[in-house]
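Quick entry, no commentary yet.
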Amino acid sequence: MALIAALWLSPLAEVENGPGLDLLYALRGVRPASPDVVIVALDTASAQALGLADRPERWPRSLHARLITGLVAHGAAVIGFDILFAEAREPCEDLALRDALRAAGNVVLAETIHRETIRDADGRTLATADRRILPLPLFADAAMATAPFVLPKTPQGILEFWTVVPTAADRPALPTVLAARMLERRQAATGTALSPPFGAPPAPLLTPPRRILNLHGPLGTIPTIPYAQALELLADPAAGAAAFAGKAVLVGYSEPNQSRQIDAHPTPYSGADGVDVSGVELCATAVANLLQQASLRRPPAAATLALVSLHAAMLALPWAWLRARTALAITLGLALGWVWIAHLAFAAFLWLPLVVPVLVSPLVAIVLGMVAQRRRDRRHQALLEQAAELGLPRRAMERLAAVLGDVRSGRTVFAVCLCTDIVGYTPLSEALSPEAARDALNRYFARFVPIVERHGGYVADMVGDAALALWVADDEPQSAVDQACRAALALDQAMNAAGAAAAEGALPTRLGLHCGPVFFGEVGADGRREIRAVGDIVNTTSRIQGANKYLHTRVLASAEVGARLDAGLTRRLGRFLLVGKAHTLELMQVSHETVPRAAAERFALGLAAFEQADFAAAGAHFAAAREAGDTGPAAFYAEHCRQLAADAPGACWRGAAILPGK
């Protein structure tokens, strides 16, 4: 997405003014011409028909006077001449044109802007100056108005027009003046405004000062009547009124013969034969755009950038989740969908970018997506090879790689450890053949492992009947603790609950939970490497699991784990000094089952007395708790208090029970 945004802000976006706009016009097709505008063309065919010079600027001005008189007589609303009458000709011809202009009262004559370059003695450009070239005062004073008509040029041709011309002191442009006259006539006809004299163009026609042309089609799409034919129509009252009444009539050079074109400009509708659109037809198009409020508009630059970037993100998204063939189909579908949206928007005069979203963005998404998928495939293959080498399931390897990154190097992470051990496995294995013992273990782990993995864990080690499962979570320790606890309780239910012994693979199991920083990665020497969890947390978890044997419990957890669990699932059992550990550790029982209330209350009283070294009182409370139904930890403490009462610990007392073994 960032790459596409950068490309959009680069000169690449200029292609939208060329191929992009061309394609939008091609998709839309020729637009019906405005019924309010008609062109009278000075062309070669008319010159031949009238027996005049091929160059229209040499035609007698009395002919233009005749045309003006006829147009006014047949109801033309306004007449615009895209011809510059800047030089005097035969006096009688000039006077005839002046009289016709004065009598008509609705003719607007064109001005032009000539840019002059100021150079030094060495020919270097020092500055440029724009100079207005006006019609002769003889004509300017007789006409309703004069107005400049210049078109902004771009490397892609003519795409825009001025409503006011900045190089002419912001004077209203010729299309603006003609459109304003048409609107004024309409308002006068409906009684909503006064009829002429003609006033200043209304503000909506003047802003914005530069608008995008909404072209109708190639040369001749706007009704164009050759000059000679126009004179013939004016000779027939009915035909003249049908052709010109109530319309804006523009008179100017319009030649379909490419070799004879005088005033023509390249546009998206320039023909393959080199025929461009005439200046007078572009002026007529601008008038129609203003009358119909149909000039093209673009979204704001920030909105366009956001749209292009969002579309690029949508194109890239399938490559992150789907296979290449499916992602390619979705990418192409989204690109075609943008074409459809842009086409509908263009029909409503909104110009959306096309080349970048339809060609550049999909190409970038496909290339980068295929590169990314190739890298993922290679990484996936490397993971498979690592998994095979280390003896790990593929899914476990992928899960570990997602958390650890480089599995081989490993790193220190926060993890929840679950250590388990089968109760009475030694006598069981003694009673079985080696093959039968193996089969029993296989059935056990076939039941054990899916429960761990279903709860998001990973069985990191299996040695004999003991197993170590891990939940690695740097960012969400609470989630890891919750999942590990649910897994432990599910294993307790599957292995230890009443009736579980009859289930396939179920064997009574002790479980211990602890959490903290562990190093997780590849451990071993050349030729013998495994993915292992290493650290004090792992060793301590094993000791916690072993404490079940003495406390007659099934699931024990350290306070670090228990503090993150629902209080209804845990019971504090006190502090213990585990075998081989220098520091005491507080343990909690984890179970869905609850001890009787009376037993729990007496156990809590006994634990408080025990921690204060009042072993006689503690022993009495623990004995009462045992009688009330707590046959596990209370029984251990009752016996431990009896031993401590006989052999007082003295000043070294730390308020912790000492377990006799692992």
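second:
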Amino acid sequence: MKSGNLGYPRIGRDREWKKALEAYWSGRLEEEAFHAELKAIRLRNLKVQQEKGIDIIPVGDFTYYDHVLDTAFMFGLVPARFRSTDREPGLAEYYAMARGNREATACEMTKWFNTNYHYIVPELADVKPVLGRNRLVEAYREAKSELGIEGRPVIVGLYTFLKLSKGYKPSELENWIDRLLPLYGQVLRELEAEGVQWVQVDEPILSMSLPAEELFHVARIYDKLTKEAPGIKLLLQTYFESVDHYPEVVSLPVHGIGLDFVHDGGRNLQAVREHGFPSDKVLGAGLIDGRGIWKADLKGRLETLKMLGETVSADRIVIQPSSSLLHVPVNAAMENGLEPTLREALAFADEKLEELVLLTKAGRLGADSIVTEIEASSCSRNALQQSPSRTRKQVHKRIAELANQPATRRSSFDVRRDKQRKRWNLPLLPTTTIGSFPQTTDIRGARLKWRRGEWSGERYEAFIQEQIKVWIETQTKLGLDVFVHGEFERTDMAEFFGEKLAGFAFTASGWVQSYGSRCVKPPILYGDVEFVAPMTVAETVYAQSLTEVPVKGMLTGPITILNWSFVRDDKPRDEVAYQIALALREEVEALEAAGIGMIQVDEPALREGLPLKREQWPHYMDWTVRAFRLSTSAVKDETQIHTHMCYCEFHDMIDSISALDADVISIETSRSHGELIGSFERHTYVKGIGLGVYDIHSPRVPTVEEIGSMIDRALRVLDPAQFWINPDCGLKTRNVEETIASLRNMVKATELAREKYA
């Protein structure tokens, strides 16, 4: 029996990776030094796994931005707008695909399955596949020569890669398989020539609800690949859920199958016991949670391992995480500021490696060999379960009375719309922003000084008010129709609210990658959630006192707080969501009582929580919609509820989005605007809506003409009376000059559109 890992966090203990990327982008780090810095981080990551005693260490999981983008780039899938006629694509083109440049908009970015990681969507419409540098060969050589590690290269599987790509018709799938298969085969042959023994091929798409007939394509792919490089063994790795077509998947012509035994709802284990497991294959047993931060129930994990051992011999089992450890922070040992009961219950990436080694030891020598560690793990988990933070009687009482809590507005949308139009008297195509304005170095520095105690609360509050005043004046000069206060007092949009609600804790170094260099530090939702005091009222009321223009109150919604936190694992997620919703309801009521008549409750993470199995979608949407409405339904008809959602397949969810019953919804769509417009040709949506008219994830400033084109496309299928004009997300990550220039162009494009559509 061996231990294996599927992927390690790229960012480094102190986000060295993020800092290197941003230094390179800003011109503060030369390319040669940049490569050297990333190599040092990459080797440190490998060395940690080596020193922890992991038997099978992945290589090639490290990236300069995103692993899906890496795959597209390696195969020459660089869209024409990024290609230069005088040179081969390099770092400039690579980062242009991810971030855009002055000449071209970036490739679309969307959620990696049901996680908060974002990948760059490959575009296949105008590209010719060709293998460039074989980055897996390079990664394998480096690990072997520098550290003596016989690594296992990792590549995104061909079928998953194509299913996540865009720019081809369904009828062209077989053609694209035929075009890419030789390149995958060439990668494997070159690895075989290097002496590689195993390759990990990630096919998480197999955990989704795929029609059985699609497995024909998967079988054809792997029948070809195993023949291309007969000296290499392939581990076909699934994760994030159970495999629907288990007998067919384990019969594929590969040498090993990786299965998730943590997030599978017990279905993978049941399938192994019911159908058996091929005697000629290795089982990658995902027994340690690759996405959660809690110490494993080692006793329970060993029981699962024992049941697997009844079907699969020990020498054919590799104990591994349920997925790559990309989704968890690096190391929990540094979290000395947490309450000891909570800290002792945590396991980040490094601690999970230790758990893998422990389970492997027990698998080899028996459970008695780790009896002390089993007892320690149980004690840590039990102590947290019995803590006062999880036994708040008032919270439990409100949840028990949930059926009596109203979750509908007092009047229908038609009635509310008329009252709101009379109250606000907004022009055609009202302009606004999503919520945040640039968080400059000065702002971040002031917050740090306040947190360190170098600034008093009064001084920090005065500083924040000055920032609000500057940006109220800026919005006035720009001519926006609905203002925001700018959120200068906030860090991450989930962390800010967690800090002010009971039931949350916060790490010092619990960073994870969200997209590119963007790292977030998710709150730890470990106890019962309860409202303590108003959280946003002071700043919003101050902003409103400076202008006659309406200022939106800005809250993060219950599902986003849930999905962007590390959530306790002792309660169903719907119950936890209802706890958050009831706490936010009190904040919404406080804002309304303070005279704030527009309140935005953002749910950018609503879709990312969708189960991978479509048959589970209705239940998820039922409780998520109810949680949102619990938060927002107590207000008067005249109070306008807004919400915001990030990249999503709108047509999949249009009924549920409408059921949220928000008066206005803005959707982050600038990178896939045409696809969303197509949704409105097939579906009807009658409430207020703003489709993001420019991409805030790119540093480029959109022209008036570009924004005008976006508006025109939307108004082909939407009534101008329901359409709002806004960027596609918050402006926190942009600089001041970009922000003002982009908003100025947005307002100008809107003025032209008003003349056109009046």
